[in-house]
Design a protein that fits this description.
Largest sheet: none
Number of helices: 11
Low-confidence stretches: none
Structural class: mainly alpha
Shape: globular
Mean pLDDT: 94
Distance between the termini: 22 Å
Number of strands: 0
Number of domains: 1
Strand content: under 5%
Order of helices and strands: HHHHHHHHHHH
Oligomer: single chain
């Protein structure tokens, strides 16, 4: 899952949301010590969600489409694509307006916890909010932009155009993989948060 998925799997808790969103920028156990308890829970949840996503049978099948050309980057590509399918899943966002409302709420909660942002996230968060990355996962054009953003951050990723072409050609297969995955990860995240 990428940003939209991690935001959704925070279930409205602003501190957990913040940790879930910054999770990629907090490395190791010692780094957790500087964070409030709720944010720390979100960072730990982020790590567990990533692990579940990477090993889920549906994700493993989906990554096969990208493996030959993108190798280990196949997982990062699928994280981004899962956000597209979530943004278009009527069970969670019945209309574009419902998704827009959700994203506005996410940014409001993140703004309240901005003091907890690591420098790297703090640097690009204003751009994320201004251009509403979370909402733009919904469109094909938005996913194309997200994939190009991913390729800019990944030093050794092959040209991303091929990933976009694979996404379009394999859209229904990838969407099916999403449907097989999403309910499992939602149940997992709820159970994990109930332990805190």
């Amino acid at each position: 899952m990428n940003y939209l998925g991690h935001a959704y799997l925070s279930f409205g808790d602003g501190a957990v949301l913040t940790g879930n969103m910054i999770g990629d920028h907090v490395k190791g156990r010692i780094a957790l010590d500087g964070y409030d308890k709720g944010v720390r829970s979100g960072i730990e949840l982020h790590r567990k969600i990533d692990e579940v996503a990477d090993k889920h049978p549906a994700t493993l099948r989906a990554k096969l489409l990208f493996r030959e050309d993108f190798g280990l980057y196949s997982g990062a590509i699928m994280d981004t694509l899962y956000d597209h399918f979530l943004a278009n899943d009527p069970r969670y966002f019945a209309t574009p307006e419902a998704l827009k409302s959700f994203t506005v709420g996410v940014y409001e909660q993140l703004d309240e916890h901005a003091a907890q942002f690591p420098p790297a996230f703090a640097a690009y968060y204003p751009h994320m909010k201004e251009h509403n990355w979370l909402f733009n996962y919904r469109s094909i054009k938005g996913i194309e932009k997200s994939l190009y953003g991913l390729s800019r951050r990944a030093k050794y990723m092959p040209p991303i155009d091929k990933a976009y072409d694979i996404f379009v050609a394999g859209y229904y297969h990838l969407n099916q993989c999403y449907y097989e995955f999403i309910d499992d990860v939602i149940k997992f995240a709820r159970v994990e948060l109930s332990k805190n």
